[in-house]
Amino acid sequence: MEPANTLRQDGESKGGILAHLEKLETQRNRSHKRFEEPQRAQAEASTLRTRIHKLRLLRDKLRAEVKQRQARIEASAASAEPDQTLETSEQEVLETKRENLKAILQAYRFTGLSGKLTSRGVCVCIHTAFEGNLLDSYFVDLVIQKPLWIHRHSVPVFIPLEEIAAKYLQIDVQHFLFSLCEHLNAYAGRKYQADRLESDFAAFLAGPLQRNSLCNLLSFTYKREPGGQSFPFCARLLYKDLTVTLPTDVTVTYQGMDALPTSWEEQRVSHENLFRTTSLHKVFTSFAGEGGKLDMSLLP
After folding, report:
1. Are 135 and 120 within 8 A, CB to CB?
2. What is the DSSP string of 91-142?
3. Full-prediction pTM beyond 0.70?
4. Which of 37, 129, 142, 251 has the largest CB neighbor count within 10 A?
């Protein structure tokens, strides 16, 4: 029995020694790790400091190169001939105007203004319209030089193109184009109304329609009823503002009589107001629809 107890005690003694050794080994490893972590952190910090130093050196080098290049450019500009510097500046200005024109055409391509760049500058096309009806188109070929000038165009001679160009072309190309658009659209609208009166409502006229090239002065004699024996009126429509499609001055008079019944005088005054506020062909459309009577809904 005693040998067995001795063996058990020896085993337990050995087991306790091994466990104690493992515990010591674990403690040693932990201590080693705690010792290595500060060293590793110090090594990483040292690496970062080295990298930061190199980057600062590179930054300073690049700054120095930039300053040297700027100095060379300034020196070159200072030594350049005045005419050459002026020529470069003018070229930049012309290029800017070219790009501005391109931007204008792109921005307003849905408003009747379009065009394309050419070798000399830009060719602008102006599409006119009135009350949803597409009418004539006109072009202006601009040469982008100093000064800007018009190479050729299809604008009618009675449109004050030279006056508009002298006023706006050199200082504001966009204003020049818009002003020209206003004049052309207004002319097209006035002409459209006069054409409609002659073609669609000739039965109301007691003679030919008198008009000038700009269609800003119209004179005609008309009756309230087409082809009837009603008393004729004489109308004179003047468009002082060449950018509008409604007359600024309207005069409706009698023909052949010094005095008329009160109802006819009221009709005359109503006609004047109607011509002043409503498109010409719409006035006669009202006459036709009402059997020669005035459509009061058209009055403002």
Report:
1. no
2. HHHHHHHHHHHHHHHHHTTTTTEEEEE-SSEEEEEEEEEETTEEEEEEEEEE
3. no
4. 142
User: CA dihedral in degrees (212, 215, 219, 222; nearest 10)?
Assistant: 130
Tokens matching residue 286: 């009202």
In this structure, what token pair is assigned to residue 89? 């500046």
Characterise 131 by phi-psi region: left (phi > 0), alpha (psi -120 to 50), beta (else): left
What distance lies between CA 93 and its chain's CA centroid? 21
Cα separation, 187 vs 278, in Å, equals 16
Q: Which has the closest alpha carbon to 229: 261, 206, 258?
A: 206
How far apart are alpha carbons 245 and 195 in whole angstroms? 14
What tokens were used for 31?
A: 């201590």
- Per-10-residue mean pLDDT, the chain, length 300: 47 64 76 68 75 69 64 62 53 64 55 80 91 94 89 96 95 90 96 96 93 97 73 93 97 74 82 96 87 47
Query: Across-strand partners of 127?
Result: 137
In the sheet that 249-254 helps form, which strands lie side by side, from edge to edge?
Answer: 210-211, 217-222, 233-238, 249-254
Q: Hey, which residues does 217 pair with through a beta bridge?
A: 238
CA distance 206 to 195: 16
CA–CA dist 258, 254 (Å, integer)? 8
DSSP code string of 39-85: HHHHHHHHHHHHHHHHHHHHHHHHHHHHHHHHHHHHHHHHHS-HHHH
C-alpha span between 137 and 160 (Å, rounded)? 17
CA distances from 190 to 18, 64, 117, 210 (A): 116, 69, 31, 13
220: which 2 tokens? 């005609």
DSSP character at residue 283 = H
